[in-house]
Amino acid sequence: MSTTSVKKSHIDQRMLDIIGYVFITVICLACLIPFILIISGSLTSESSITSDGFRLWPKEFSLGAYTFALKHPEQFVSSYLLTIALTVTGTIVGLFISAMAAYVLQRQDFEWRSGFSFFFYFTTLFNGGLVPWYILMVNYLHMKNTFWALLMPPLLNVFYIIILRTFLRSIPDAITESAKIDGAGDFTIFIRLILPLAKPGLATIGLFTALNYWNDWFNSLLFVQNEKLYTLQYLLYKMLGNLEGIRKVMAITGMQVTDLPGESLKMALAILVTGPIIFLYPFVQRYFVQGLTVGAVKG
To answer: Each residue of 149-158: pLDDT tens digit?
Structure first.
């Protein structure tokens, strides 16, 4: 290869690197700027947001939204702890059961594999509806106003089981066969061999499951009347609803409403609820890219 060709190749590679870095920088800014606006909005007075809109830096600094949100700190902390307990417990248990179901469904020697797969898939197309589900949970399972009403519904997701099944198919059968020759049972193979090899898929599905639990508020709306069992998202939902009701009443009566946080409260609540779950991603990010490619064709 001539010197000119080598120089041209280096120039092309450098141009490609520059374009790549510029593109990544633009994408990062597109993701970062909205988050900065949320932080800035939560620290801005309501009157400033109403008159000037959102800014990257607060024009009138105020902690009124956080003060209003934490007006009853004991209830806020209780909901926080409950949501954390639900997220941790539900993610661990749900991920373990989903992995076991996926492992069984991908086993070629499981005689009823096709039948069970059909029943799993059927539930993704048809369901009994909201009313029969509510009757089942309340009248037959007696889960109203219990921790189980919040834990059980999001515990299993058939779509996640199908994804894990596809991922587990990429694990060579020779590993299972050699373990059986050495005398290992199915559960031992699953715990000591399959789970360690399935970390990328488990990390991805675990993150999705944790997000489902963290963001869940609908089950609290349906099954919970005890304030001690309000999840974080439902507590904030009620807080915004109560605030909106107060603002409407004060507007009808002609009272001053600009001092009450509205948009700034929404931004503050977004910061309060997204903080902990954001810190979960660094622990799973090294597996996340691998997990996103589950089911990909290997060369």
So the answer is: 999 998 988 8
